[in-house]
Amino acid sequence: MNFAQAVTDRTRRLNTRLCVGLDPRLDAYRDAAHLRAHTLDVLEATAPYAACVKPQLAFYEALGLEGLHILEDVCAAARTLGLPVLLDAKRGDIGSTAQAYAQGWLTGRHAGAALTVNPFLGFETLTPFVDTARASGGAVFVLVKTSNPGQADLQGNGVSERVADEITRLNAAEDGEYASVGAVVGATHPQDLAAFRTRMPRALLLLPGLGAQGATAAQLAPAFDAGGTGALVSASRGVQYARGLDVPASVQAARTFRDELNAALA
Ligand SMILES: O=c1ccn([C@@H]2O[C@H](COP(=O)(O)O)[C@@H](O)[C@H]2O)c(=O)[nH]1
């Protein structure tokens, strides 16, 4: 089962569209060991409410080698829990370097994972990521319209739509329900979701911005297909730090986000 099939299957079985983000900030902890233990506790406790888990690599890279070991432990724990892993790294570079990124994050122990990628260097630079994801059963999520207020500086004037059309072109080469090239569209842009859903009919949409960035579940239904699949809505701080380091509060937050997303689709 590839990444798109795994998250779609999990959405149907567990009735959840929530992507739990794990963005551990060192300043919230006594030390790296404490950060590791809490992050793994949140992962395990919220897994029943999650369609997938999304570690943001920046937070692990910030801790140096120790952080990368923690990231590997988080990915291994997710795999043990049967949770698809979406690595939020926003990689992108000239082709030969993109190939190395793809090898590092989409093959070997990360085979079957998904990776966020930045198309800013041109569509040709997506090829190594897409080819590697297809070969390893993984996926890529290309930045289309990011959740931050400043996205319009560079993503306006039809740029997001051009990227969306390239995703649709790439996905046309694949069979099946959802294909291996997904799209990042901020949950903070609810007015645009219906148009992007139509423009990229076979792309899984990743919608970051729920909770801490102000997006609410109630407006996100247009991102989904008629069967209630096709999109993953992510919340990181709103789950991991729902009430300080209180893990039961993280569980409650994940359950509430899941329920609110389901209510939006009802
Ligand atoms: O457009 C984007 C793409 C990625 N992100 C990432 O998602 C999480 C959001 O964290 P919250 O705490 O839920 O706000 C974070 O890792 C971002 O780097 C995004 O926010 N917007």
From TrEMBL:
**Which catalysed reactions does the entry list for this protein?**
orotidine 5'-phosphate + H(+) = UMP + CO2
Q: Name any one GO molecular function.
A: orotidine-5'-phosphate decarboxylase activity
Pathway per its UniProt entry is:
Pyrimidine metabolism; UMP biosynthesis via de novo pathway; UMP from orotate: step 2/2
Residues at the catalytic site: K90 (proton donor)
- Write the Enzyme Commission number(s) for this entry: 4.1.1.23
Domain of life of the organism encoding this protein: Bacteria
Which InterPro entries does the entry mention?
Aldolase_TIM, OMPdecase_AS, OMPdecase_type-2, OMPdeCOase_dom, RibuloseP-bd_barrel
Question: Pfam families in the record, alphabetically?
Answer: OMPdecase
Q: Which SUPFAM superfamilies match?
A: Ribulose-phoshate binding barrel
Q: Where is the Orotidine 5'-phosphate decarboxylase domain?
A: 17-254
UniProt keyword annotations, A-Z:
Decarboxylase, Lyase, Pyrimidine biosynthesis
GO terms under biological process: 'de novo' pyrimidine nucleobase biosynthetic process; 'de novo' UMP biosynthetic process
| Family classification | Belongs to the OMP decarboxylase family. Type 2 subfamily.
Identify this protein by name.
Orotidine 5'-phosphate decarboxylase
Taxonomic lineage of the native organism = Bacteria, Thermotogati, Deinococcota, Deinococci, Deinococcales
Gene designation per UniProt: pyrF
